[in-house]
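Let's inspect one such protein example.
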Amino acid sequence: MTETYADNLAQLIRNAHRVVVFTGAGISTESGIPDFRSPGGVWSKMKPIMFQDFVASRDARREAWTRVFNRTAGWTGASPNAGHFAVAQLVEAGKVTSVITQNVDNLHQDSGVPDNKVIEVHGNASYAKCLTCGKRYELEALRHHWEADEDITCMFCTGLVKTATISFGQAMPEDEMARATEEALLADLFLVLGSSLVVYPAASLPLVAKKAGSDLAIVNREPTEQDPYADLVLNTDIGPLMNAVMRRL
């Protein structure tokens, strides 16, 4: 079955000139990173901390940072898998022009995709930013503040510092969404890898691409509500599939 699937997807990729890859939790579960919403996922084990609660409550901030440094959510510390490396190879070959990701695990960059080719619509859990001035902080540079039970604030403007993820209730990053939309409009193949396509506005991007004339391929373990609009739907594991696809290109 994988071989037939690979033939079909390889043909679409081969015929395309501008492939945009859109990834969700399903590409990273093969690296051992839990997804968000399924039974056993992150939000079935712990309640998400709303953005407004993080801003308003020191206790909420303390809990958020405890989750970061104890790696409770499991979003950091994993290694890229075959799916990530296949995408990186397609970027290096010039076939994939950008990677739009809902993931916050930094695994596309770790697999070799340049930063400027990755559009993170839900942010990144591997570093932190000041909510006021945007100054970037590496997590380990903040650990001693957490260990000392201090509120973590910016050394430049005293604003609150938070991981660079987009929390529930926090505004989507305008620049990233604008770039992602532009890429979707320019694609001639929009390839979804491991997204259930239920989290909007990001989940609207495959339909934006399709409406603009792109082919749409969806690879996900479970069916999605956008499958009827796709030119190819493959319900299978991403790593083995993409390994087989790369052997055909």
Remarks:
- The chain is about 35% helix and 15% strand.
